[in-house]
Design goal:
The complex is a heterodimer of chains A (715) and B (383). Chain A contains 19 helices and 28 strands. In chain A, helix 2 packs antiparallel against helix 7 (135-152), helix 12 runs antiparallel to helix 13 (593-612) and helix 16 (642-657) runs parallel beside helix 18 (692-707). Chain A has 4 domains: 11-152, no CATH class; 173-178 and 415-523; 189-411, Jelly Rolls; 551-713, no CATH class. By secondary structure, chain A is of the alpha+beta class. Chain B has helices spanning 2-11, 18-30, 36-47, 51-61, 65-76, 92-102, 134-141, 177-183, 190-201, 205-208, 230-248, 315-324, 327-342, 349-364, 369-380, and strands at residues 116-119, 152-155, 254-257, 262-265, 291-293, 312-314. In chain B, the strands form 3 sheets. A two-stranded antiparallel sheet of chain B has the order 1-2. A two-stranded antiparallel sheet of chain B has the order 3-4. In chain B, strand 3 and strand 4 (262-265) form a beta hairpin. Chain B is globular, with a radius of gyration of 22 Å. The chains are: A alpha+beta (715), B mainly alpha (383).
């Protein structure tokens, strides 16, 4: 259907324009769509501050100039060694300010809405990354520069204002309804922690099974807004009631003799060892009833039992296979079970890891110690620190079945809220778009499974959906942009995917809108500024003008100038041996003496083949008395045979060095150098006569000296 | 004496004569010194001072078989393996690029054409095999003259014995055996995209990153909250995956079979590697076909000058079209040759302008790669 007229309401100015102009595309980033120029009504192009007044700094007049006078000077002064043309990336200190500007924005290294959280600032504070004085001072300097940049363009909170765009009504999380459609298997739970408190020093056992094991948060343990605790240091430890686990599970009279520990956790890294204690019921590093631990990429499950093969420390461990890397630094559903039939089992994300308990038959649990303490994140003695997030923990006095584990995995963790965003303004009465929304972690929301509802599915287009938080389009994480579908049913499943969107300041007050480019016949296309074409990157680092030939070029060159085939067996064999000893690159700065040795060895093989072959040497040197003893051929130093000496030198020069080249050694110099070499080699034949082979050897020596020299190997 | 020669050589760089410049052209292009007759011929051309004559001198140099067998081979070989090492055997990827350059085929064929270069029976008796590299190893060991069209010819990939692809599937070097072994082996096939970008756009992921692209096509196996902090995803992971994942969709039907020693193509059947680790983020994209999309056509990476007819398609051939149609592809080929021949990257604005100019000529000249070599060699001959 064609573009239709838009309702005349105070909030539909952009839409009215769209209606009036028919197929005219409206750029959200342009005036009239609530972009940075904001005051479209007044025609004032000066950016205004406040939430949602800026779309993209690359599109803000004066932004690049502000960058060049605020942050860029610091970057080119202190970061230029690595971030101009490498090795560091991105190139935000590039000599071309436009390139630097594009790089620092494209790679999200600054947060103009919140300068202290800018990556270039945090990198100095958190990682002490190449500070030039002290890191705090340096970081403050960068932060001030980012702030000055933001102030100069009145950036405010950044993002796309959606005030007058094709968007839904606003909703908060509290406006949604909790999705309880997915049921967990909770029977047989004897202890449970949902970590919903959000504040205080205690996480309460909500199982309802007395006595409660309430947990004290000690040390560097903080609450997650999305339910859970973040453990950086310290421990979360049972304050009382720890014996409940012994009584319900291990007591010979009252215990079930089997148990399950279920947890939703996020390991902060895959580097911890120890094992680092994730969940433990123990006394110290040598005594425990059970423990789930981390050893890098592996989960480690210890369990005390009545068996000569099992220690009081619960070892040997059942540990997941290292190559499987079952432990990851992401949210995982981890379930450990024990029963007398199958022994210990570890399940990750609903699947058994297929690691078999090394203790068989499974021992009874009657030797558990009733006085041990239940804890998360550390050993009771606080010397086996684990780091990460715990979103949920439950303990059962039964070993869950595989099906029950899968059921709980599929149920997920945290509160899922169904939010129905009203779009009746655009798509007719009763129309809405529904999302499943949850707090993904402390930094993001997760939006899933959008469904469009309308009583009037007249076939209009629904396309390019974005999520706005507090009136501005989330700058990253938009996961439904490519949606494009006609609405022909009263209920249309738009996608079965999810995406994570950065949170606003406070989940309790954050408001969401859903923004469309096409809906109900209305259009409001978002266009992005077109960047200038990429420019050739310059690297002014001084480099040698000449380069050394690489290994293959050396072989080809030697074969070419001598006329000897590189496939002569002796040469080929030497080359295969020497190949990786020869230069691999033209860069003469990496040339080392061993490479010269390799070049000389290969040159000797070529010269040997050249001189040993009568046809080849005649072609190369012309007629020459190779079968006469050397003194008669070359003469002594005091009485040199200049004609013969020059015949060899000249042939080598003409074939290997090349005549008439100012960049090569002169013939005169070469004759003198080679004659000196001959003097040395002939000297030993003056007292004791040498045979004719010595003559050939001397020529080989001369040949090798030239062929292995820089006159050939450099270019 | 060696030191003396070296000193004399380097010190003689200033004030290069036409003969010096002719030797420089030959040395840098071919890798070996010219013989006296060739040097005389090239010197005469360079001496006229006419750019066209200097270019002709460079063309003469490139007649030398060593240009193909050695210079081009070592120029191309690092593109064909993950380690980017030059110490690798000749293979069908390298051979195909050499052949495309030799026969003056548009260099855009490198990622789009149904072509592979093989030795003729006159060159080696062992024919091309889908399951080993012996054919090319023999070509290399025997130092076969790759400049000789009676010894080294181009044939359609799709007609080779054992081929599983049609002409419509073939995408130049992407669908060669060597590329499959290097870039389709294990992993998730994202490697093929990354190395295509490195080799043909001169950009690694760090230079392509853009966190503002849509996350619609990021697969399930990408962690959205590394270590429990989705800020890392928003500032790091998404920058590459938002663009790379939709691009790598083009290779969804390809896999390297290590046992068989060949690339496997499963038409209309997504390889399992595209669906692994689905539990990392179950709400992520599930690959259902070999659709690819270029989300970098908008935003900062529009600077690469994408010009193909469509910003999306199916399979590697249209993906290759997207790459070779970009301005970045043209400039990249010139930059690579510049580095190879001038022994340095662009250092001045004059260098940058010349690279852009040669890239213009490259496009206007039907993407003839030898012209790029010649123009660059002439530009650097007096330096």
């Amino acid at each position: 259907m064609g573009t239709q007229s838009l309702p005349s309401t105070p909030t539909s100015r952009a839409a009215r324009l769209a209606g009036a102009l028919g197929a005219t595309w409206l750029a959200l980033a342009a005036a009239g769509c609530g972009d940075f120029s904001g005051a479209a009504d007044s025609g004032n192009s000066t950016p205004t501050s406040g939430p949602g007044t800026v779309f993209d700094p690359t599109n803000v007049p004066g932004s690049r100039e502000a960058f060049e006078t605020t942050l860029y000077p610091l970057l080119t002064q202190y970061c230029v060694n690595c971030h101009a043309n490498g090795p560091g990336s991105p190139q935000f200190a590039n000599p071309t300010s436009g390139t630097a500007y594009t790089e620092i924005l494209a790679q999200n290294k600054v947060n103009l809405a919140d300068p202290p959280s800018s990556r270039i600032v945090r990198k100095l504070i958190d990682e002490q990354h190449n500070c030039w004085s002290d890191c705090t001072t340096d970081a403050n300097m960068l932060e001030a520069a980012v702030q000055a940049w933001a102030d100069a363009i009145h950036f405010g909170q950044g993002g796309v204002s959606i005030g007058e765009t094709l968007s839904s009504t606003s909703l908060r999380l509290a406006d949604g309804t909790e999705d309880t459609s997915v049921q967990r298997y909770d029977t047989d739970i004897i202890a449970r922690w949902d970590f919903k408190e959000g504040a205080g020093a205690v996480a309460f056992d909500t199982s309802g099974v007395q006595p409660s094991i309430d947990l004290a948060l000690q040390g560097g343990v903080t609450w997650l807004t999305a339910w859970g605790v973040q453990i950086d240091t310290g421990i979360v430890q049972g304050m009382s009631g720890n014996r409940k686990l012994y009584d319900r599970i291990a007591d010979p009279k009252t215990g079930s003799g089997q148990y399950t520990v279920e947890a939703w956790i996020t390991n902060a890294s895959t580097a911890l060892e120890g094992p680092a204690r994730i969940i433990t019921y123990s006394a110290n590093t040598n005594a425990r009833n059970f423990t789930l631990g981390q050893v890098m990429y592996q989960y480690d499950f210890r369990n005390r039992g009545v068996s000569p093969d099992v220690s009081g420390n619960g070892t040997p461990s059942l540990i997941t296979y290292d190559a499987d890397q079952d432990l990851q630094d992401r949210l995982q559903h981890v379930v450990i079970t024990y029963d007398a039939l199958r022994g210990r089992r570890i399940n990750v994300d609903g699947k058994w890891t297929e690691d078999v308990d090394p203790v068989s038959p499974p021992p009874r649990l009657w030797n558990w110690d009733r006085n041990f303490t239940f804890a998360l994140g550390n050993e009771i003695t606080q010397d086996r620190q684990w780091k990460g997030q715990v979103r949920f923990v439950a303990i059962y006095d039964r070993a869950l079945t595989d099906a029950q584990i899968v059921q709980n995995f599929n149920a997920g963790v945290g509160k899922r809220i169904s939010m129905n965003f009203d779009v009746s303004h655009w798509a007719g009465p009763g129309s809405s778009i529904e999302f499943q929304v949850s707090e993904f972690d402390n930094a993001s929301y997760m939006f899933c499974n959008p469904i469009f509802h309308t009583p009037q599915p007249s076939g209009y287009e629904l396309a390019h959906v974005r999520i706005a938080v507090n009136g501005t389009l989330a700058p990253t994480g938009q996961g439904f942009v490519t949606l494009d579908t006609p609405i022909t049913d009263t209920r249309t499943v738009l996608s079965q995917r999810c995406t994570v969107i950065p949170k606003g300041p406070d989940p309790a007050t954050d408001e969401f809108n859903i923004v469309f480019e096409d809906l109900g016949g209305f259009q409001n296309v978002i266009t992005e500024p077109v960047p200038p074409p990429a420019v050739v990157q310059l690297d002014p680092t001084a480099r040698p003008t000449y380069g050394v030939r690489d290994y293959a070029r050396i072989r080809e060159s030697m074969a070419s100038v001598t006329g000897v085939s590189a496939l002569v067996p002796a040469i080929d064999a030497a080359y295969q041996d020497l190949e990786q000893q020869l230069p691999s690159t033209f860069d003469v700065r990496s040339f080392v003496s061993s490479q010269q040795v390799g070049i000389s060895k290969l040159a000797l093989e070529f010269c040997d083949a050249l001189v040993e072959s009568a046809p080849l040497r005649t072609t190369f040197f012309g007629s020459f008395p190779f079968t006469t003893e050397p003194v008669a051929v070359f003469g002594a130093a005091a009485t040199p045979n200049t004609v013969n000496r020059n015949q060899i030198a000249d042939a080598l020069y003409n074939h290997m060095v090349g005549s008439g080249l100012t960049v090569q050694p002169s013939l005169t110099d070469m004759r003198a150098d080679l004659s000196g070499l001959v003097d040395t080699l002939v000297a030993s034949c003056l007292g004791t006569p040498c045979d004719a082979e010595r003559t050939q050897a001397i020529v080989k020596g001369e040949c090798t000296a030239v062929l292995a020299s820089a006159a050939v190997s450099m270019h | 004496m060696l030191a003396a020669l070296c000193t004399a050589l380097v010190c003689g760089a200033a004030g290069a004569t036409p003969r010096d410049q002719a030797k420089r052209i030959h040395d840098r292009l071919v890798g070996v010194p010219p013989d006296a007759a060739t040097l005389d011929q090239m010197t005469a051309l360079v001496s006229t001072g006419q750019p066209a004559d200097a270019l002709q001198a460079a063309e003469i140099a490139m007649h030398n078989p060593a240009f193909y067998r050695t210079a081009l081979k070592n120029f191309i070989t690092p593109w064909t393996n993950v380690d980017r090492t030059v110490f690798a055997d000749l293979n069908d990827y390298t051979a195909t690029v050499i052949g495309i350059i030799r026969d003056d085929r548009p260099f855009t064929d490198v990622l789009t054409a149904d072509i592979v270069y093989v030795g003729t029976p006159n060159a080696v008796s062992t024919p091309y095999s889908q399951t080993d590299n012996v054919h090319y190893q023999l070509l290399d060991q025997k130092q076969v003259d790759l400049s000789d069209p009676t010894l080294f010819v181009g044939v359609p990939q799709s007609t080779l014995p054992g081929s599983q692809i049609t002409a419509a599937d073939a995408a130049g070097v992407i669908t060669t055996r060597a590329a499959g072994e290097a870039f389709f082996k294990a992993g998730t096939n994202r490697r093929m995209f990354r190395f295509t970008a490195i080799n043909y756009l001169c950009r690694d992921l760090e230079q392509l990153k853009d966190v503002s692209r849509p996350a619609d096509r990021i697969r399930q196996d990408v962690n959205r909250s590394p270590g429990g902090d989705s800020n890392v995803f928003h500032t790091q992971c998404i920058g590459c995956h938002s663009g790379m994942d939709p691009m790598a969709g083009a290779f969804a039907f390809f896999q390297w079979d290590d046992t068989a020693g060949r690339t496997v193509f499963t038409r209309n059947q997504v390889q399992p590697k595209y669906l692994i680790n689905a539990n990392v983020f179950p709400g992520g994209y599930v690959t259902v076909d070999d659709r690819w999309d270029n989300f970098w056509r908008e935003g900062p990476r529009a600077e690469l000058g994408w010009r193909a007819a469509a910003s999306g398609g199916f399979g590697p051939k249209s993906f290759g079209e997207e790459i070779v149609s970009s301005r970045a592809f043209s400039v990249c080929q010139v930059e690579k040759v510049f580095q190879q021949v001038c022994f340095r990257p662009a250092q001045t604005s004059d260098d940058a302008n010349e690279i852009e100019h040669i890239a213009d000529d490259f496009e206007a000249g039907n993407y003839r790669m030898k012209s790029v070599f010649a123009e660059v060699a002439v530009y650097c001959m007096g330096q």
